[in-house]
C-alpha cells in the first residue's frame, strides 16, 4: 500500500486580485470575490492510498460527484469535462459522473450555477461545472444575467483553473475572398454589411474575441452582419455549410469541418502559432495588440464549504498532472494545460472582469446593472 501526503492550505478566502496582493503580508481575514468573510480554516493534509484521494474527516465525499455540462457533448466544455471525468475516476473514492444539459438556453453557464445553488447536492459539493472565463464573465456585463437566472458572480466559487484556451477564426471554404484575415477585412470594407458572422449573441466570449479583433483591424460592428446562431457547435456547422461566412470558436467544433475542407482557418489568438497549423497566423501577427485570451475552470456554488472546495481542488490538481489527461488535452490543437489553485483562479477572474469591461464599453455593448 502506497500512501502519499501533500500538504495544502484550505482556502479560507477566494480573493480578488487586489486582496491577493494585499494578503502577502497580512494574516487577517479576507473577503472572497463575491463571497462572504470566512474565518481561516486549519491546514488540511490530503492523503492518497493506492493512488486514491482519501475523504475528508467529515466523510466527504460519500456519494458520486457529477460534472454538469451546460452545453452539448461536442462543445469545448463538453470535451474538457469528459476528459476530466475519465481521469478523475482514477483518483476519486466515489464515482464521477458526467451529465450533459444542452437544455439551458439563455445563459447556460449561469443557469447551471443556479441549478447547483438550488440543489442540496450542489450546496454540499457534489455538483461542479465547467466555466469558460471570458464568455461567462462577459455575460454578466452585456446582459441582465441576474434578472434572468437569479445568480451572478457573487454566487460563483472557482475550484481551479485547468487550461488556457485559444480561439480560431474560420471562414466557409467557398466564400468570394482568399482565406486570409487581410482579404476578409478588405472584403468587409468594400461590402459593408454583407459578410455574415455566425455568433452566440450578447456577451459570448468568442464573439467578444472576434469583434475586438475586428475593431483592432479597423472594422466596426456595423460593417458586419452578425447572426446569433447558438452555441459553438452551431456556429461551426452553420459556417461550414456556408449559411454564414465567418465565425470564431475553439478548435473542437471546427475540427471535423476543417478536416473535411469545409472550413478554412484564418487566425488564432494566444502566444505563438499552433504546431498542427503552422500556416495559421496569430492575432498579433495580423496586427492585433494584446488579444483577449480565455481559459477554462471548474466551478461550484459559494455555499460549498472551504474544506470541500479544497478537496475538489486537490482532485483536479491530480487530474491536471496526470499524463493520460495531459495527452488527451494536448491532442486538441492550441490547448495549454495548467493548474491554478482557487485563489489564483479567482484573482485572474477579477482581472478578466476589468479587461472585459473595457472591451465591452469600447464596443458599445456594456449594460449597466
Structure report:
The chain is α/β, with parallel strands linked by helices and 369 residues long. Helices cover 37% and strands 19% of the residues. It contains 13 helices and 14 strands. It has helices spanning 17-22, 76-91, 108-118, 120-123, 133-142, 145-149, 181-190, 205-216, 232-240, 251-259, 306-320, 323-330, 342-363, and strands at residues 3-5, 47-49, 52-53, 65-69, 96-100, 127-132, 156-165, 168-172, 196-199, 225-228, 246-249, 263-268, 294-301, 336-340. A six-stranded mixed β-sheet has the order 5-4-6-13-7-14. Strand 2 and strand 3 (52-53) form a beta hairpin. Helix 2 (76-91) packs antiparallel against helix 12. The longest helix is centred in the last third of the chain and has 22 residues, at 342-363. The protein is globular, with a radius of gyration of 21 Å. The termini are far apart. 48% of the residues are buried. The model is unreliable at 1-41 (pLDDT under 50).
Largest sheet: 6 strands, mixed
Beta strand count: 14
Oligomeric form of this entry?
A: single chain
Structural class: alpha/beta
Concise overview:
With 369 residues, the protein is α/β, with parallel strands linked by helices. The chain contains 13 helices and 14 strands. A 6-stranded mixed beta sheet has the order 5-4-6-13-7-14. Strands 10-9-11-8-12 form a 5-stranded mixed beta sheet. A 3-stranded antiparallel beta sheet has the order 1-2-3, with no helix packed on it.
Amino acid at each position: 500500500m502506497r500512501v502519499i501526503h501533500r500538504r495544502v492550505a484550505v482556502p479560507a478566502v477566494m480573493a480578488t486580485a487586489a486582496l491577493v496582493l494585499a494578503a502577502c503580508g497580512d494574516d487577517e481575514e479576507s473577503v472572497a470575490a463575491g463571497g462572504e468573510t470566512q474565518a481561516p480554516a486549519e491546514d488540511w493534509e490530503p492523503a492518497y492510498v493506492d493512488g486514491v484521494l482519501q475523504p475528508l474527516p467529515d466523510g466527504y465525499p460519500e456519494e458520486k460527484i457529477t460534472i454538469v455540462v451546460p452545453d452539448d457533448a461536442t462543445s469545448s466544455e463538453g470535451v474538457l469535462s469528459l476528459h476530466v471525468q475519465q481521469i478523475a475516476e482514477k483518483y476519486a473514492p466515489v464515482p464521477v459522473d458526467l451529465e450533459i444539459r444542452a437544455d439551458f438556453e439563455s445563459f447556460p453557464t449561469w443557469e447551471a450555477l443556479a441549478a447547483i445553488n438550488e440543489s442540496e447536492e450542489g450546496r454540499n459539493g457534489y455538483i461542479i461545472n465547467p466555466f469558460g472565463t471570458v464568455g461567462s464573465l462577459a455575460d454578466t456585463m452585456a446582459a441582465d444575467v441576474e434578472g434572468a437566472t437569479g445568480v451572478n458572480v457573487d454566487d460563483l466559487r472557482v475550484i481551479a483553473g485547468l487550461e488556457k484556451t485559444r480561439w480560431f477564426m474560420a471562414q466557409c471554404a467557398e466564400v468570394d475572398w482568399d482565406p486570409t484575415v487581410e482579404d476578409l477585412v478588405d472584403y468587409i470594407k468594400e461590402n459593408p454589411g454583407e459578410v455574415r458572422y455566425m455568433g452566440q449573441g450578447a456577451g459570448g466570449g468568442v464573439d467578444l474575441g472576434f469583434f475586438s479583433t475586428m475593431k483592432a483591424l479597423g472594422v466596426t460592428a456595423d460593417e458586419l452582419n452578425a447572426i446569433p446562431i447558438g452555441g459553438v457547435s452551431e456556429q461551426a456547422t452553420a459556417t461550414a455549410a456556408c449559411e454564414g461566412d465567418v465565425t470564431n470558436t475553439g478548435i473542437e467544433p471546427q475540427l471535423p469541418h476543417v478536416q473535411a475542407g469545409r472550413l478554412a482557418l484564418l487566425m488564432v489568438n494566444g502566444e505563438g502559432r499552433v504546431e498542427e497549423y503552422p500556416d495559421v497566423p496569430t492575432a498579433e501577427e495580423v496586427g492585433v495588440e494584446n488579444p483577449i485570451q480565455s481559459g477554462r475552470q471548474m466551478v461550484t456554488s459559494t455555499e460549498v464549504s472551504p474544506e470541500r472546495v479544497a478537496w475538489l481542488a486537490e482532485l483536479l490538481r491530480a487530474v491536471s498532472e496526470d499524463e493520460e489527461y495531459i495527452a488527451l488535452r494536448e491532442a486538441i490543437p492550441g490547448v495549454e494545460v495548467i493548474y491554478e489553485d482557487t485563489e489564483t483562479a479567482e484573482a485572474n477572474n477579477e482581472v478578466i472582469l476589468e479587461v472585459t469591461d473595457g472591451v465591452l464599453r469600447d464596443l458599445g455593448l456594456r449594460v449597466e446593472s
